[in-house]
Amino acid sequence: MPDVPIIDAHVHLWDPQRFMIPWLDQVPALNSRHMLPEYEAATAGLQIEGFVYLEIDIASHYTLSEAREIAKLAETEPRILGIVPHAPLEYGERVRAYLEELVSISPKIKGIRRLTQQEPDPEFCLRPDFVRGAQLLPQFGLSCDLCCYAKQLGPTVELVRRCPETSFILDHIGKPNIRGGEREPWMSQMRELASLPNTFCKISGVATEAHHDRWTIEDIRPYVLHALDVFGEDRVVFGSDWPVCTLATSLRRWADTLDELTHDLSDTAKRKLWHENARRFYRLDD
Q1: What one-character DSSP code corresponds to residue 4?
Q2: How many other β-carbons are positioned within 10 Å of the β-carbon of residue 44?
Q3: 111 pairs with which residues across the strands?
Q4: What average pLDDT does range 24-30 have in this prediction?
């Protein structure tokens, strides 16, 4: 168990009886209420100082409602340190009005995420309007979470290159095909992404890319260690991806696994991974 205070940089909360979340219909194991009491039970024994809420791919009509709902919850729940809602970057210049509305909701809104993992075109993120939308984010004080599969990582690297003023963080180490044992071109592309100074990497969502029911620490070791190596101790953060992680692991097992994989890190590097880097990237002290 990590012996440091933890900021969990990737948490979802949802109640499918309140909002329409279409993808949950295809995942019965997750299609139930997962809110603060359930998260508290899942993190029992861990020193969770706070967490960052990530959007849940809610039905498009509800995206601003989702942001408002979590911001309201954060008024009474101090552990919600930051909020990362959805934003339709593909609207280009026209996303300005949406971003203006978004940042007016709460100062805890620190960034946005526009999922691209489900887009059939691997270069969706390089469409001119999408690039322009990402370039606008610094004007609103917002960062951008990137969530893609490894097959989309090459174009994602190019997106980051075209937006040098935007701060990006890669979710789930770019979702490599751990189940299939594939390492290239993911490893090379991760090194290329890490060479760009405006990127961080979230050490999260790893077990779900391995065999859900029989993964071992050795299955995921080379992927986690590579991400840690290329991004370095100053640009990696811990995330649980709860409750999605429960498809393959308990939150506690994932935390213990990452703690074991990083036992050789210095105490300073461990504090950065588990706490300080998330606070710095998401500007949680602002």
Answers
A1: S
A2: 9
A3: 143
A4: 97
In whole angstroms, give the CA distance from residue 169 to residue 144: 6
Q: For the segment 241-258, what is each residue's pLDDT rounded down to a tens digit? A: 999 999 999 999 999 999
Residue type, 167: S
Amino acid at 112: I
How much is the pTM?
0.97
**Residue 165 contacts residue 144 (beta carbons within 8 Å):** no
143-168 pLDDT tens trace: 999 999 999 999 999 999 999 999 99
Q: What residues have CB less than 8 Å from 211, skipping those under 6 apart?
A: 179, 219
Round the CA-based radius of gyration of the chain to a whole number and report it.
Answer: 17
Hey, what are 206's tokens?
């790893």
Residue 168, H or E segment: strand 168-170
What backbone torsions phi and psi does residue 21 show, to the nearest 5 degrees?
Answer: -130, 85
User: Are the C-beta atoms of 168 and 138 separated by less than 8 Å?
Assistant: no
